[in-house]
Amino acid sequence: MEIIIYPYNNGTDTSYNGLDEIEDLDEFLKTINANTTKFTVRGSRIEANAFSYVGSNLKKIWIPSTCTTIEAPSYDKSPFYPIAFPGTPIAEIDLLSPDLQIFTDVVSSAVKPSCWGPYWNYYSETQQLTVHWNSNKAIYKAFNIS
User: Fold this and answer.
1) How many whole angstroms separate alpha carbon 31 and alpha carbon 53?
2) Distance from CA of residue 62 to its chain's centroid?
3) Backbone phi, then psi, for 106, in 5-degree steps?
4) Cα within 13 Å of Cα(119), Cβ side
5) What are φ and ψ of residue 131, in 5° steps?
6) What does the alpha-carbon distance between residue 49 and residue 77 come to, in Å, rounded to a whole number?
7) Which domain holds residue 45?
8) Do 36 and 54 meet the contact criterion of CB atoms below 8 Å apart?
9) What total number of domains does the chain contain?
């Protein structure tokens, strides 16, 4: 299953595949279906720790060049820094995978939007997630996530 998130537009219909409007992406991601393996962002901003609570089933994400801001002032505020829900028993913790693949149509790191924070693709203090620069939706869709 792939979920595509449209930005909330002051009451404009932003639903997709039966999803209602999503005002709080963080809250939505905390309740995301465990079978979600692909994710497409169709907004202009990604907040710090936005995907931190998503489990290991998420294998790839599409971030278009129209996403002008990714808040990531430090590695532990990266959208992809894995965090367990407070109070989750250790045996039930399912953290975001370090194998998550990021796809973008941005040509290279040298020309990424200036408001993509310095730690935008960090998974940990020293590990960055793989970024497939200069991709297109066909490459993203064809990428095998098994």
Assistant:
1) 9
2) 8
3) -65, 135
4) 20
5) -115, 130
6) 5
7) 1-146
8) yes
9) 1
**Tokens matching residue 121:** 């693709």
115: CB partners within 8 A, 6+ apart: 68, 69, 70
pLDDT tens for each residue of 8-63: 333 333 333 333 444 455 555 555 545 555 666 666 788 888 887 777 777 888 88
Give me the amino acid identity at 83.
Answer: I
4, 13, 15, 88, 115 from 18: Cα distances, Å: 11, 11, 6, 29, 32
Q: Considering the entire predicted model, what is its pTM? A: 0.74
Sorted by sequence, the CB contacts under 8 Å of residue 143 that are 6+ apart come out as 60, 101, 103, 132
Return the closest-CA partner of residue 38 out of 62, 7, 63, 70.
Answer: 62
Q: How many helices (H) and strands (E) does the chain have?
A: 2, 8
Q: Which helix (H) or strand (E) holds 27?
A: helix 25-30
Query: Amino acid identity, residue 117?
Result: G
Q: For residue 109, what are its two tokens?
A: 């790191």
Identity of the residue numbered 49: N
Determine the Cα–Cα distance for residues 26 and 99; give it in Å rounded to an integer.
21
Task: Give the tens place of pLDDT for each residue, 105-135.
Answer: 999 999 999 999 999 999 999 999 999 999 9
